[in-house]
Specification:
Elements: H1 18-40, E1 47-49, H2 52-69, E2 78-86, E3 109-120, E4 126-130, H3 140-146, E5 160-162
Antiparallel strand pairs: 1-5, 2-3, 3-4
């Protein structure tokens, strides 16, 4: 059950208090990031930056392809799931051949964005299913339920990691 926020901050406001942002980021760095760095013996990324035009283009592609397949899909039905991921180690870098990324990202965290569509299952529960909007074989609801084709889904992960990038412009 979702409740509407009664203040200027809240899940639907697009805003968070500065102190909460800092606390959440510090929690990650002091716990998860430290454990990753110590266990793997690396200096893992603690942030990823995407330029706004790339994000807008990605969102527009999701909307356009979803509408082609299922014209009655609404903006409220669509979303993006952010998967935590890791680049391969340098010795396995050849798998990145089709998706050119700097080798200095080897072994580091990244995010992979995958489109989702909201659908009701057989029991009447609403779920946000991953889907491949480029799968032209069937409608969006069925594509979401079966996960779409294995090849060439819409996905994005090519942001700039820090480190190795310079954290000079980061506030947190």
């Amino acid at each position: 059950m979702e409740a509407e926020s009664t203040n200027e901050y809240g899940p639907k406001s697009g805003r968070m208090p500065n102190g909460l942002i800092k606390t959440l980021i510090d929690n990650y760095r002091q716990n998860h990031l430290n454990a990753i760095n110590e266990t793997l013996g690396i200096q893992d990324a603690h942030s990823i930056w995407f330029d706004l035009p790339k994000l807008k283009k990605f969102i527009a592609m999701i909307e356009e392809e979803a509408m082609k397949k299922t014209p009655d899909v609404t903006e409220e039905d669509l979303g993006i799931r952010f998967y935590y991921a890791a680049y391969p180690k340098l010795e396995n870098w050849n798998i990145m051949e089709s998706h050119p990324v700097s080798e200095e990202y080897a072994g580091r965290h990244t995010l992979v964005m995958i489109p989702t569509v909201k659908k009701t299952d057989e029991e009447g529960e609403i779920h946000h299913y991953d889907f491949n909007a480029l799968d032209q074989s069937i409608n969006l609801a069925l594509t979401a339920r079966r996960g779409g084709k294995e090849e060439d889904p819409i996905g994005e992960n090519n942001g700039s990691l820090t480190p190795p990038g310079d954290p000079i412009s980061e506030r947190f």
